[in-house]
Amino acid sequence: MPTEGHRLVRTLGAITTGFLFLFALVQPSSIAATHIAYTGAALAWLARLAVVRRRGLHSGPLDLPILIYLVLSAVSAMLSPLPVSSWEGMRKVALVCVVLVVSQNVISIARAKQLIHVLLVSGLATVAWSLWLYAGGVGLHVIQPAPGPAWDRAGLRKDDVILRVDGRRLTAPQQFLAHLRAKPSAEPLQLGVVRAGGIEVRRNVVPVVVPPGEWSPAASLDQLGMSIETARPARAFGFYSHYVTYSMVLALLASLVFGLWLSVPRRFSANGLILAAAFLLFTLALGMTLTRAAWLALALGCAVQVWFRFRHWVVRLLLPAALILVVLGTSAAMYRWRGTGLVDLSDPGTDYRILMWTDGLRLIGEHPWFGVGMNSVRDAWWRFDLAAYRKYPLRSHFHSTPIQIAVELGIPALLSWIAFMATYWMMLVRLVARAREQRDSQAYGLALGILGGTSGFLASSLVHYDFGDSVVVFLFWFLAGIALAVRQHLARQPAS
To answer: Of 231, 257, 276, which residue is a domain's last?
Structure first.
């Protein structure tokens, strides 16, 4: 190949690697930036493939399962009664190609660790932001507006959160009083309000305007006409707009750190203590999300790692008891902070899930082969007579990945997905064993952490549609690509 060709290949490889580092940096904080980084890496890699004509590609155990799953999903989309909606859904299915982009371009265990380090540091930045929001506040909590005054007439209600005041974020009552004193009385007061029970993010803001002449400066809180205090997030959400999304990202990252910590030869060395501190910080932020499925996913992921790390029968005997204690503790915590148990049929969220699962099984029986099509329920929900939609004013998914896949894509696609996940999980188990046999602590820690995170994620997918959340799926497939890269690294090493 000419020198210019070699230079072009190296340049495209460097661009791909740069976008992968950008992906790791922005994934825990921005879905838009993650999409941009992935697209850039994929395009640069494809351009490089066009130059080298597929030289350097290596096959893996997930190639065929990925292909079968993509083909069956595409067939379902073609046969859907709403093909436009279903082909839109294919974009989410096609994110599985992240696995190929990452695994084909992470060329060494050192590069894999660099990417993971960037990912974890970026994840810790979101933890710091979550703690700051709780300490400093997100806005002003309306404890009670007095009946009659301007605030009540403008539409402020008990437990609303004032997120913006004339475009500014004010987090202390005295800041609000100072703003009123400095503002010209001839101007309206523009409030951005999140209604009671909403997530305190900008996309949930509704405008509330207090006309000029209706409001007036107040010398003290007693003269304000309503009781307010600093508003803190009810549940941590990081830089995302939903706490469930953030919780699953944290569960994957915490599981990964736990595996790295278990692989450290001296777990109370400086490196071990840093990893332990990172695990505690991720776990703290995860606790602040108050998301029971993610809590249990992390507990299960850590238990799986301990099972494979320690072979002593006493440890393995105690693990089920430890998991039972975690379940009981989670249930008690849910009662304490959310007023509901781990499984509570009186909880609207649980009731909604059961209704959706029941109707999901009905739709699977009515459309077993190719499903109803992706996004068909979302865009034409009235066709399917869903009890949850009649009972609640919420148009959502089926809250279970297997049920969602079977409803939208059919039973064959579900079976292909199950085979895909089983193949991937068994690959991780063999990867852990291979890394241990070869005494490669770096590969062992990565393999162990990814195995634990994957185990917890798949378990939570039974009661959450985790594979429908692009933010979490990006991270899941990224870690799968890292696992394949680690597998390639071990395959090049001589057996012990």
So the answer is: 231
